[in-house]
Amino acid sequence: MIIQEVINIIEEFAPTRYAEDFDNVGLLVGDAGNEVTGALITLDTLEATVEEAIAKNCNFIISFHPIIFSGLKKLTGKNYVERTVLKAIKNDISIYAIHTALDNNYKGVNDMIAEKLGLVNRKILIPRKDSIKKLVTFVPRANADEVREALFKAGAGSIGNYDNCSFNVEGKGSFRGNEDSNPVIGEKGKVHFEEEVQLGVTFPVHKQAKILKSLFHSHPYEEVAYEIYALENENQHLGMGMIGELETERNPEDFLKEVKKTFHCGIIRHSELVKSSIKKVAVLGGSGAFAISNAISADADVFLTADLKYHDFYKAGKNIVLADIGHYESEQFTKNLLYSFLSKKISSFALILADTNTNPIHYL
């Protein structure tokens, strides 16, 4: 396989279209046309990670965090970012980063945290609003089933846990082709009325090109009439954070002790334990202070995240317990998630979980 083929598989799972605007995801270093000798899956790409890739004959690193986050104006090796990139280039190693594209995935980073905690009744904490569109097209009644099925096959018509969703209205369409037309139905230069079905389906924005290609291929008309609308609807299967419930209520202190053990935390910094018991749990891997108000609005008893500042803890008030479990600790199982997904899709070359511990924080 070449690198681009692996990227295509990754982006079926976590499309880069859904990464945050501030992020830098995708292929950061290397040639997408290179053949893959092996892929090293890691949380971070550092010099030590590149060295591990070399030792294990991997010329492709699949990383959660991007080693290049802001622009590089020089490559002189003056800092760890430049040294890492230089080492990768010298050894013909490509680097791909997925980051917030996976954060926003329903089965991504936060679902993994929820799984480790044993949460049930899970849902996205902050659903996305800019990820759903609607296609409306007009099809001859005799061809409606064929076009509808083609759109479903291309990925349209899925709403939450349901698929093959559409709305159909029968009516009469009219058209007249000019002298350059080649109508499939009717005659050029004459007004024609046709019994048609107005077919409406929603679709995720990253599939628009594929869905339109399917529409044009399956539709019988020379000129396909269609409309696309951007919807304000929240996408319940895409967004930041997750909230769920413990199967049984827990004492707050006991719960945090279990979290510390499960995530191998050197320490957990938390706000006052204002709750008598913990049942509803919100999580957001990595830096999640921006979601404190969302966790409170969702009536969570506790919010597990990382990188909370001193004044962030004041925002808890008497409403919630805030717990900073560490950035690395909250995201450490992400590489296992990627490995599990890719190993089910790829069997033609080695997939290797990185052994290098990239956590820059140590505790006494």
Automatic annotation (TrEMBL):
Keywords tagged on the record: Metal-binding
Subunit-structure text: Homohexamer.
Database matches in NCBIfam families: YbgI_SA1388
Matching Pfam families: DUF34_NIF3
Classification via InterPro entries: DUF34/NIF3, DUF34/NIF3_bac, DUF34/NIF3_sf, N-reg_PII/ATP_PRibTrfase_C
Protein's UniProt name: GTP cyclohydrolase 1 type 2 homolog
Family: Belongs to the GTP cyclohydrolase I type 2/NIF3 family.
Any one Gene Ontology cellular component term annotated for this protein: cytoplasm
GO molecular function ontology, one term from the record: metal ion binding
Signal sequence range: none
Binding site for a divalent metal cation: H65, D103, H327, E331
Species, as recorded: Christiangramia fulva
